[in-house]
Amino acid sequence: MSNDGDRGFPGRREGVVFIVSAPSGAGKTTLVTRLLKAVPDLTLSVSCTTRLPRQGEINGRDYHFVSGERFVIMQKRNAFAEWAEVHGSLYGTPRQPLERIVREGRDVLLDIDVQGARQLRQYYRGAVAIFVLPPSWKELRSRLTGRGTDRKDEIRRRLENARHELRELLFYDYFILNRDIRESLEGMKSIVRAERLKIARIKKWGGLSFRSLA
Predict the structure, then answer these.
(1) 50, 34 in Cβ contact below 8 A?
(2) Burial class (CB in 10 A: 0-12, 13-18, 19+), 24
(3) What is the rounded distance in angstroms from the CA atom of residue 129 to the CA atom of residue 113?
(4) N or C: which end of the chain has fewer CB within 10 A?
(5) What is the DSSP letter of 63?
(6) Residue 101 to residue 14: CA distance in whole angstroms
(7) What is the dihedral angle through the alpha carbons of 114, 120, 125, 127, rounded to the nearest 10 degrees?
């Protein structure tokens, strides 16, 4: 499997871990979906969750939907690279698939909240964290209200959680101000390209001759 940054060279690097977080309603899911379609060799890490599937979601593609009891068993067995409670449901990233993808030199994208991002960055020091921002607080409120899937008390809770999540912004590497989906997608693609091209990520050059570059 070749990647931008080492394509055509004998050197090999570990896969890059890309983390994307955002307040609910910022448009993160749409951005992540389009990024995966637009960027080659980028794999989505499928999280486990105890919440119920939403309309259109497929088990194993969007999430691994598990019972609360099953989640707790996996947690006790140290099966998660990170886990957190978000909006009353449990979410966790399965450890073994993630480690295998990275070890094989494939890049992986994680759609996780700020709690999980903090945990994961302690484990993967080279992880790249991207925070997606809404254009404004007013727009965020409008998006949550307009999608018509949540009760008023749930919207209030999501907005309160968003206040806490926004405080984590300074711990991220990049931010995307999601005013226009096409512009935001280009920004995300640029981040992935730049991180893949970092020399620091090459583990070994495998006999590359610098004289051939002169």
Answers:
(1) no
(2) buried
(3) 11
(4) C
(5) B
(6) 9
(7) -70
Residues near 131 by beta carbon (within 8 Å), at least 6 away in sequence: 20, 21, 22, 168, 169, 172, 174, 175, 176
Residue 194 lies in a domain: yes
Range of the domain at 168: 12-203
What does the pLDDT look like over 171-200, one tens digit per residue?
999 999 999 999 999 999 999 999 998 888
Contact criterion met (CB below 8 Å) for 75 and 91: no
Q: What angle do CA 13, 198, 179 make, to 5 degrees?
A: 115
* The total number of structural domains that make up the chain: 1
Ranges in the chain, pLDDT < 70: 1-12, 147-150, 203-214
Query: Is 6 within a domain?
Result: no
pTM exceeds cut of 0.90: no
The first and second tokens of residue 159, run together, are 């907005």
Note whether residue 213 is domain-resident: no
The answer to the question of residue 7 being in a domain is no
- Measured CA to CA, the distance from residue 71 to residue 48 in angstroms comes to 8
Rounded Cα distance, 67 and 32, in Å: 26
Residue type, 170: L
- Cα-Cα-Cα-Cα torsion 180, 182, 188, 193, nearest 10 degrees, comes to -150
